[in-house]
Amino acid sequence: MALESAVEIAPAKGKLGVLLPGMGAVGTTFIAGVLAVRRGLAQPIGSLTQMGTIRLGKRTDDNVQPIREYLPLADLDDLVFGGWDVFSDDAYVAAERAGVLEPPLLAELAEELRAIKPMPAVFEQEYVRNLHGDNVKPEGTKMDWAMHLIEDIEAFQKQHGCDRLVGVWCGSTEIYKEPTAVHQSIDAFEEGLRQSDPDIAPSQIYAYAFMKLGIPFANGAPNLTLDFPAILELAKENQVAVTGKDFKTGQTLMKTILAPGLKARMLGVHGWYSTNILGNRDGEVLDDPDSFKTKEVSKLGVLDTIFEPQRNPELYGDIHHVVRINYYPPRGDNKEGWDNIDIFGWLGYPMQIKIDFLCRDSILAAPIVLDLVLFLDLARRAGLTGVQEWLSFYWKSPQPVAPGVYPEHDLFIQLTKLKNTLRHLKGDEPITHLGAEYYQ
Predict the structure, then answer these.
(1) Residue 129: Cβ-neighbour burial (10 angstroms; 0-12, 13-18, 19+)
(2) What is the DSSP string of 250-287?
(3) What is the rounded distance in angstroms from the CA atom of residue 6 to the CA atom of residue 425?
(4) Could you tell me if 287 and 367 lie in one domain?
(5) 51-76 average pLDDT score
């Protein structure tokens, strides 16, 4: 049943430029994947926007529509790709080096991929100590770097004739940092840029450039990039949609699937031990303790929010939650996530669950990038600004919409919120399962 509160959504006319800070394994797998899908060489498996459906009204109505037809999303044929990287390799060479996609598929896409060359990146060795590249911006202040990025973005838009732009951070995990005084206001942050304040990370400079231009931005790493007052103030001032952080791909995806099920059955948890083995560039970066700390904080926050130990102390009040990441080059992008979960049930009797998830990190991340690109573009055309909580579905560390509001980590609640937001945008009733008509 349609309501009168449908949001006016501008049509998705013209080209949509997709700019990626970081064009390594995740970025090139995403780009090559979209090129392959639009040429009919593969299916967009894992993408909610391309393969998901949404139910409208009662179950007896049997009104289930593909999301890509229900909403005025940008067409894959209209996407144009660009970005920055510390390595000068074009997208074909970078994808070949990453070793995620098979050579025959890359050969089919070679001409298009070779045409995509990264712009010199904003980079500070202190923030990613195990990464060494020479395709970087010349020396200058951090404000100089921000202005260079703004020039890059404007030049890309003009060169490719893009009507709209979206940015998604697909770069490396930076060292762990807490917000400082420089992050508390726009004025303080801009003065910090002029003074090259050491607490301003490269990812924050990208975020600033996108916010200044009013371009939606998502943060695919656990960095302090969008979640501090100055950037959120700038997003509000320029009416920009933002979301992040840290793509929810392998092990954390499994946690947000399993933990809600354990909680739903009121099964207790004594401990959850998680270890990861990966050998790609991300694994090399995370081999640095300070970069690992950033990832660890992101991964550890999931269970506390789902289990609510303060409300369920007998079941979850004393969980030993351990996360480890081990860099093992022979594994490449084929990450292994191993979990041992010590649970207990009726009368306190112990049980165990063991999971060995042999996953492909970039294969799981690429469809997330696609969905975020299309949904952030939709948000902009619908006039949505600030933190997009309905996109929490994609994040290890969803951003809260306001101070004191805890982020939702339960994957199934996140999916319900996402789909209900889509229904709201179209003026359709949310699905709450409260009315008897929804049980028919």
Answers:
(1) middle
(2) SHHHHHHHHHHHHHHTT-EEEEEEEEEEE-SHHHHHTT
(3) 5
(4) no
(5) 95
Q: Which residues, in sequence order, are bridge partners of residue 18?
A: 81, 166
- Domain that includes residue 61, residue range: 15-247+363-426
Query: For residues 269 and 262, what is the distance between their CA atoms, to the nearest angstrom?
Result: 8
Which of helix, strand or coil describes residue 249? coil
Q: Please indicate, yes or no, whether residues 105 and 149 belong to a single structural domain of this protein.
A: yes
SS3 176: coil
Length of the chain: 440
**What pLDDT was estimated at residue 280?**
73
* Number of helical H runs and strand E runs in the chain: 15, 13
Contacts of 289 (CB under 8 A, 6+ apart): none
Write down the H helix ranges in 161-197. Answer: 186-194
Query: Can you tell me the distance from the alpha carbon of 91 to that of 115, in angstroms, rounded to the nearest whole number?
Result: 8
pTM of the model: 0.93
pLDDT at 432: 82
Q: How many Cα atoms are found within 13 Å in the side-chain-facing hemisphere of 239?
A: 6
Q: How many domains does the chain have?
A: 2
Neighbours of 15 (CB within 10 A): 18
Higher pLDDT, 219 or 326: 219
Name the amino acid, one letter, at 52.
G
Q: 268-278 and 320-327: which strand pairing? A: parallel
Nearest to 223 by CA among 240, 209, 206, 241: 206
Task: Judge whether 262 and 236 are in contact, CB under 8 Å.
Answer: no
Query: Residue type at 192?
Result: G
